[in-house]
Amino acid sequence: MVRCCRWMSALLLMSLLTLGAARGQEVDLLLVLCVDGSGSIDEEEFRLQRQGYATAMTDDRVLGAIGTGRRGAIAVAFVEWGTPGAPKTVLDWAVIKDRPSAEAWADRLLAQPRGMQSYNAIGDALMHATDMIKAAPLRSDEAVIDLSGDGPDLRSLVPAQVARDRAVAAGITVNALAIYKGGTVSGTGGEALDLHYERVVIGGPGAFVEIAKDYKDFGRAILNKLVREIASGPQTTRTAATSEGK
């Protein structure tokens, strides 16, 4: 009964947050979490990813970082990617400003079923996230796409470099989290995955790649990444080489 009441309260709070978002609320950051849902992710790894995000969003360090902003609120959307041309929005925009709103978001995330994704279409995920930010019902001077994955870009309808450049041109920073499975996963041509992400994925002001040494390390890595993204504020521009320059 207690769990049921908590779940109903979380749904009500999320509904109220969505209504607030529709009125053009100003926030400190628009953040799209783009998470690898491809076939390379087994059920245990999928669970560790979902739990990692839920735990991180309710961590005191993340909530503290949110509280340091001028408006004391951020807007977050959650996307799972894999299939070319078909990333899935798992959670649309929600405003997170305090522990109750963060816990409501975390509960809702953990309750969502896993979708069917295949391959590694990172470029299409970046395009989807860019379109979400452009169409967001909220206003912010800062926008970040946070992409995590355990493999390189494969079979995207829009190559990752091109999608990254379009995001950067729209004023969006793209960061990445490279997940290693015991150090065995690499980018294309034997290139280390974090270097692959640095070359073809990240771009914009203050862009960076975080590394998780395996899925058990994911929770630590995403917590550090979220704190850095939320608390950073305006950065000196650091853009990875554009596709035109390669």
- Overall geometry: globular
How is the largest sheet built, in terms of strand order?
3-2-1-4-5-6
From the coordinates shown, what is the CATH architecture?
Answer: 3-Layer(aba) Sandwich
Biggest sheet record: 6 strands, mixed
Order of H and E elements: HEHHEEHHEHEHEH
Tally of individual helices: 8
Task: Itemize the secondary structure elements and their pairings.
Elements: H1 2-21, E1 30-36, H2 43-57, H3 60-67, E2 74-81, E3 88-96, H4 99-111, H5 122-134, E4 143-149, H6 160-169, E5 173-179, H7 193-200, E6 209-212, H8 218-231
Parallel strand pairs: 1-2, 1-4, 4-5, 5-6
Antiparallel strand pairs: 2-3
Helix pairs in contact: 1-4, 2-4, 2-8, 3-8, 5-6
Could you explain the architecture of this structure?
The chain is of the alpha/beta class and 246 residues long. The protein has one domain (2-245): Rossmann fold (3-Layer(aba) Sandwich), CATH 3.40.50.410. It has eight helices and six strands. It has a six-stranded mixed β-sheet, sandwiched between helices. A hairpin with a 6-residue loop joins strand 2 and strand 3 (88-96). Helix 2 runs antiparallel to helix 4, helix 2 (43-57) runs parallel beside helix 8 and helix 3 (60-67) packs parallel to helix 8 (218-231). The chain is globular and about 45 Å long. It starts with a helix and ends in a 15-residue tail after the last helix.
